[in-house]
Amino acid sequence: MCGIIGYIGSRNAIPVLINGLKRLEYRGYDSAGISFLKDDKIGVRRCAGKIKELEIFIRKEKLKSNIGLGHTRWATHGKPSEENAHPHRAGGIVVVHNGIIENYIELKEGLKKKGHVFTSETDTEVICHLILSYSKKGHGLEQATKEALKLVKGAYAIGVINEAEPDKILAVKKDSPLVIGLGDGEYFIASDMPAFLKYTRDAMILENGEMATLTHKGVSVSDIYSNRPVKKKVMKITWSPAMAEKGGYKHFMLKEIYEQPRAIADTIRGRFSLEKGEVNLKEFSLKQSDLKKLKKVFLVACGTSWHAALVGKYMIEDMARVPCEVDIASEFRYRRPLIPGNCLMIVLTQSGETADTLAAQKEAKRLGARVLTICNVVGSTSSREADGVFYTHSGPEIGVASTKAFTTQLTALYILSVALAKAKGQLRAAEITALFNELLQLPEKVEKALKCDDSILKIAKKFYRVRDFLYLGRGINFPIALEGALKLKEISYIHAEGYPAGEMKHGPIALIDNDMPVLALAPDDRVLEKILSNMEEVKSRGGKLIAVATEGNTRVHAHTSHMLFMPETNYYLSPVIFSIPLHLLAYHMAVLRKCNVDQPRNLAKSVTVE
Ligand code: M6R
To answer: Which residue's alpha carbon is at the smallest distance from atom 7 of ligand 1?
Structure first.
């Protein structure tokens, strides 16, 4: 997730771009850059760091231009650095891009053979070179861009300027957002509306496959596949700038909860080939032969990431039949763990900067383990120090309570488990295809799960004044009970516990009385019967039961009237789906209790001290 902005009009474009980038900084903030046309020559200024640093960097030059592009980056391919910052340039073509180009390695190889020289590690740079190669064949910017995009697989929202056609910005989108701002004789492109709200409230939203051409005279839109002009509706933005930054959501946490279908789709993008039944392991340099030899996996993390690690154990042991040990990083680093040969340590960390996780990672390497990190922040310490990285690509997570980072970690673990199971010969081709097919449906099913929001709000209104809360789960959903409890306590300050439901009668059942709400996770799986009897035990002691079950399961409904139904999926992906109502429940309870949802007391987004 990055932020792009473009401007053409009579103002000086430079402050407009910098202002717009500041409003888009929530989309990414590891490096930034602008390009502009001055005396018909392209200029590019970029630097690592936040927009503030870019602003300082260009201040002395007193740049002026009536057209320009800007970009704030959240790295996906290549570390945060000046070279990898956008805009990218090839000849007279300049591009800013938000998205992921899946086939950039093949495209880059092909272009290199034709003499193109690359200066960055990014996927984006191939777009500039492709457009340049078609312009050299005599195509104008529109046609060259269309031809280039025919070769590109993946998601993109791009802004393009050509030195040879100095009065024009092109904008094209597929699966990444792009809006056009329509001012009085001035026009904007942006990843999100806050970037130009200061100048205009009239906007058009580009749809997949649409190309907008912005000139000083106006904006025209066409379909890149049919070449036909498209008539667009102009909308009036009524949001305030602050509201718009959160996409109209009241809090970043809620926005991030709702981003999960997109985030999961980005985690999956380019990771496997359904036709070949193969997982793409290139990015994290693990060969099939390495996986085949694996004797043991350690999963190590903190907080929510540790809950993902617990789910990972169920996935890996069940699918690949490789023994797994799960550790909280602060325990692992001091417990003198025994690391056998041929073992892999999987570190899970959204930020890649958690002190205990980094120390555990170091310790594992010292003891001879290979380390793979499942991480969200490109170029973070964990990703730099690990032997391999599986980036989740869920985009910046700003709310302190982790939501989309968690479900994308689960998605990554699922993909890794299939890869491992395949290498170990534990899954047949047809089983692998079925697992991938189910994964492909996950974003849509998460979207469906989010529809329970209103029912959850009703439940939250009933329970938000309670002092304690119990979450029960079994099997692969036991860690989801832990995660539900963590979410609730960290943002609403209600004391909450997650328990494996079978443990209830070994102690916690003593807590059940008429005031105790108990949320039971009851998907249609191999332990459904067991959780139904645990629910009965709660009910007969007066506990207030809330159940989350698979759509259409009337048997669970018979145990309680507080029901939430989730779309059906396979055993391994049920933790992703069943996390959604728990995120929403914690969110609504916290809002009703008037808590600071995005910045709960005593907590920091990443814990960089021990
Ligand atoms: O960045 P990390 O994944 O390493 O962070 C680990 C924990 O600090 C983090 O998950 C924390 O528990 C969250 N606030 C939970 O919502």
So the answer is: 303
- Contacts of residue 426, defined as CB under 8 A and 6 or more positions apart, other chains included, come to 319, 320, 321
Which residues does a 6 A CB cutoff place in the pocket of ligand 1? 302-305, 349-351, 354, 357, 400-402, 490, 606-607
Q: For the chain, what is the domain count? A: 3
CA 421 to ligand 1 centroid distance, Å:
28
The pick from 304, 327, 398, 603 for probing ligand 1's pocket by mutation, whose C-beta has the most ligand atoms within 8 angstroms, reads 304
Report CA(330)–ligand 1 centroid distance (Å): 13
In the chain, what percentage of residues exceed pLDDT 70?
98
Q: Given this model, what pLDDT does residue 150 score?
A: 95
The pLDDT confidence band at residue 283, using thresholds 50, 70 and 90, is low
Q: Does 224 lie in the same domain as 80?
A: yes
For CA atoms 307, 310, 314, 317, give the dihedral sign.
positive
Please tell me whether residues 175 and 233 are part of one structural domain.
yes
Q: Is residue 607 part of a domain?
A: no
58 and 167 in one domain? Answer: yes
**Residues 343-370: tens digit of each pLDDT:** 999 999 999 989 899 999 999 999 999 9
Range of the domain at 556: 446-598
Asked if 482 and 559 sit in the same domain, the reply is yes
Q: In terms of Cα–Cα distance, which of 67, 68, 84 is closest to 76? A: 84
Best residue among 404, 488, 606 to mutate for probing ligand 1, ranked by most atoms within 8 Å of CB:
606
